[in-house]
Amino acid sequence: MIKKGEEALEKFSTTAYPKAINQVAKGIYHVTGYGHSNAIVIEGERSLILIDTLDSNERAKKMMTAMRKYTDKPVKTIIFTHGHPDHRGGSGAFKETVTEIIAFSNKQPVLKHTALLADVFEVRGKRQFGYALNDEEALLQGIGIREGKAVNDGKYDFLAPTEVLTADQTERVIDGIHLTLVAAPGETGDTGFIWLKEQGILCCGDNYYGCWPNLSAIRGGQYRDVAEWVDSLDKIMSYDAEIVLPGHTKALIGKAQVTEVLGNFRNAINEVLLQTLQGMNEGKAVDEVVACVQLPAHLQHLPYLGEYYGTIEWTVKAIYYAYLGWYDGNPTNLHRLNSKAYAHKMLALIGSKEKVYQEIEQALASGTYQWALELSDLLIQVEDKKGDLSKIAALRKQAPLETSANSRHYYLAYANDLEKN
């Protein structure tokens, strides 16, 4: 959080994913800004290979209309870098021409019965991505323009894979193009990258993009193994690419930029992991670890490590609970009072609700919005409607301080939901 977080987020969005079709080598195009995610078009002898398909059917169609400036060949092959819907949502636009759809197998199996959480994931995902916000409220989705389904520009239209790769590495020649497909779990367990050796180009999916990655999604979900993500970045760097094409934000062009940026990106993530584990091993509680973990000075202000999507704090918390579980070692927390009982006792100790009202007003006036939120929750637990109103005000004050689009969306969407109830 910074004083002008919203301003920093807007500035990032104006440069990170311009609407463009960039020909990065003969017959290879990196498409940015046409959807929330990127796509890569590879021209074969008689057809096109499409790596990812944008987030909606309409946007995929618009992309291909623009591509006709360069080629009129049909899309016959689709390769998904991973299973997130913003990378697969446009695939249905190619159902008349596509003959094979390749995906990577999931190296991190989904927990049994996860489907029973569909409703809560729906609510929290909607808030994280700002789907119910208007354009003025949402601005963008952090690492790309708003998804088509959020702005009436098409819908998810999925085609199922015809082949799921289970090997760690697969060599293929498709319409005269030699590709190496390599499993590289990171943001998802089914992530992989595509290496074009002859051109020195690597398509990395979402294991790298130009800001702090979503190492832990606030919508919820299984732990994204940060150590394995670092291993996958090491694997990517071992290919000595001249050009790296990410699934969001702009390409890395030239061996020097690839080496520097990917190296710093990998080292920053690894540093947070190791510092977190060290703090945990010293017996620190999670909030104490959050307070002491920071990037080395030479990494702190790099533009491609800005917290416009994920944050270091969320990363630390995810690592902490993944390795040690929910218990922080303090016996007070083994059987804490439930939140309602705690609120009643705290209000009795404070003496009156009026004192809480006054403290909330002072917190809102002084800019200590987190304190206002916590005090509002005391009132909400004792079913005082003033708690809802003060929480709405604090959420809307807090949102402009956020550089992360995800947290900004969540504050605003939650405030809107509270106001409706």
TrEMBL record:
Residues 36-248 form the Metallo-beta-lactamase domain. CDD domains: arylsulfatase_Sdsa1-like_MBL-fold. Signal peptide: none annotated. One of its GO terms (molecular function) is linear primary-alkylsulfatase activity. InterPro entries: Alkyl/aryl-sulf_dimr_sf, Alkyl_sulf_dimr, Bact_Alkyl/Aryl-Sulfatase, Bds1/SdsA1_MBL-fold, Metallo-B-lactamas, RibonucZ/Hydroxyglut_hydro. It comes from the Bacteria. Pfam families: Alkyl_sulf_dimr (PF14863), Lactamase_B (PF00753). GO terms for biological process: dodecyl sulfate metabolic process. This is Metallo-beta-lactamase superfamily protein. It comes from Isobaculum melis.
